[in-house]
Amino acid sequence: KEFALSGSEQNPDITAKDRKAVLRDRLLGKGAPAPVQAFLDHGADFVTARTLEDLVGKMNGLTGKSLLDAAEVRRQIEARDLQLANPYSKDSQIQGIRNARRYIGDRLGRVASPHRILDPEAGPLIGVRLSVLTRKTLGGIQTDLDSRALGPDGTPVGGLYAAGEVAGFGGGGVHGYNALEGTFLGGCLFSGRAAGRAAARETA
Ligand SMILES: Cc1cc2nc3c(=O)[nH]c(=O)nc-3n(C[C@H](O)[C@H](O)[C@H](O)COP(=O)(O)OP(=O)(O)OC[C@H]3O[C@@H](n4cnc5c(N)ncnc54)[C@H](O)[C@@H]3O)c2cc1C
Q: Which of 147, 169, 185, 191 maximizes ligand 1 atoms within 8 Å of its Cβ, making it the mutation to test the pocket?
């Protein structure tokens, strides 16, 4: 269910804005939407198994190295599962899940009911190989209101402009300190426009 709820951009019911289908197929029913299921069935980075030992074996198989020790993974997951049974758990992730579920929108649409990871009813277990990438640089080149790049002394470097993410317009900056989702492109376009206008003025 966690997979059915996350990956909303792969959920045709949600992208087609078909509210009835979302309720019928995803929240009341079981299973993941077809495109998400396709990741499970065919994804080169996905492994599924019924037992933890089997899963860890397949995860190690993905990398060709025995990076994970099944006994250690079991120890950690069992410790986490124990905390789930504790209504006063101090585990910050479990507290975070419980907190998110206090809002009905998140409870219905985004966060699956908390359950023990090793609960056989909640299976199969799924492992996904992650790849590290740089998503947000938040800039580095200081600019003025004409998007002219400024040197270490704070004065414009002749003929050099900087716009978009490299100039700090991808989140942060104009949209506050936090790089909130969806706030990047506007600032990138805005600073590009300012740079283009200033460059045109300079060369006119
Ligand atoms: C997965 C993902 C999802 C995102 N979703 C959103 C969203 O929903 N809403 C939103 O507002 N923002 C989103 N963003 C952020 C937004 O897409 C970027 O901030 C924005 O596209 C940056 O635009 P840019 O032109 O400044 O830089 P880029 O688009 O990174 O362009 C820089 C270009 O410079 C080229 N380049 C680098 N080095 C050299 C070199 N030496 N010589 C020549 N060319 C070079 C690169 O190849 C690249 O084409 C997302 C970003 C990612 C990665």
A: 185
Handedness of CA 123, 72, 95, 133 (dihedral sign): negative
**Atom 27, ligand 1: which residue's CA is nearest?**
165
Bond from prior residue into 152 cis (ω within 30 degrees of 0): no
Q: Give residues (CB < 6 A) around ligand 1.
A: 135, 164-166, 170, 182-185, 188
Residue-wise pLDDT tens for the chain (204 aa)?
666 666 667 777 778 888 887 777 666 665 677 777 888 899 999 999 999 999 999 999 999 999 999 999 999 999 999 999 898 999 999 999 899 889 988 787 667 788 899 999 888 899 999 999 887 777 889 999 999 999 999 999 999 999 998 998 876 667 766 777 788 888 899 999 999 999 999 998
